[in-house]
């Protein structure tokens, strides 16, 4: 197992066209449940990601979750659009939070910003994120920082790339799949993918995936599922509120799913609709 995703919130406050519709709740995962999730995750991995669909910066006491990870020697990856950093009343607090020693990687979903109309201009948004990167380096943060453009050939990408290169004084992409803006800081690119949603047309009946083998996701209510794409828990093996992760990985459903992947068969209908999974067929 390489990484376990723990959904501390399903709230993001945005409406990206590429994300599946879902009910958003202001209540985060309780600290007691998160403590259990982190303790169990630490038996399998050294790295956790604190997101599935929600934006972790929406959690006001995020530092407490990071402290728990630190006590469990878990390194943390966060993915956020970063709009909460632009808010003056929360900027200083969030900047300190994002400099937490438990954080290994921060992904700013710039494609998420481009997919929404907000009162924040692109210039203000990028300048705020640039300012955070400068603060992180002055504080000697070891975190890797990625500006994600996971939207293919989106028309808004050119302006983002040009402005970030200007702010950082960076070169062009060349033959690389990324643009190096500064040490440990990149613009990373990928195509937009279709979220797996039951009822969507099947894309394939055969293929590979790393779900339940190299990653798991623990949803906000404690259900354990095969991967970070299963935001609704359609592949749930059960809950950490009643069973351990070890027990859940030995359920018939989990074993059947893993055996199917090993045989290049997609035994679950949800997996057959997943566009993200197709990258593992390369």
Helix and strand topology:
Layout: E1 3-6, H1 31-41, E2 47-49, H2 62-71, E3 75-80, H3 83-86, H4 88-98, E4 103-109, H5 110-114, H6 122-138, E5 144-149, H7 157-168, E6 178-182, E7 185-189, E8 215-218, E9 223-225, E10 238-239, H8 245-249, H9 252-262, H10 269-272
Parallel strand pairs: 1-2, 1-8, 2-3, 3-4, 4-5, 5-7
Antiparallel strand pairs: 6-7, 8-9, 9-10
Helix pairs in contact: 1-2, 6-7
Short description:
The protein is 32% helix and 16% strand.
Tell me about this structure.
With 282 residues, the chain is of the alpha/beta class. It has ten helices and ten strands. Strands 6-7-5-4-3-2-1-8-9-10 form a ten-stranded mixed sheet. It starts with a strand and ends in a 10-residue tail after the last helix. The mean pLDDT is 94.
**What can be said about the biggest beta sheet?**
10 strands, mixed
Structural Rg: 19 Å
Query: Element order, helices and strands?
Result: EHEHEHHEHHEHEEEEEHHH
Report the helical percentage: 25-40%
Rounded to the nearest angstrom, the distance between the terminal CA atoms is 21 Å
Q: Helical region count? A: 10
Secondary structure class reads alpha/beta
What is the approximate shape? Answer: globular
Give the rounded overall mean pLDDT. Answer: 94
Task: Please list the strands of the largest sheet in the order they lie side by side.
Answer: 6-7-5-4-3-2-1-8-9-10
Q: DSSP strand (E) fraction?
A: 15-25%
Number of strands: 10
Enumerate the spans where pLDDT stays under 50 for 5 or more consecutive residues. Answer: none
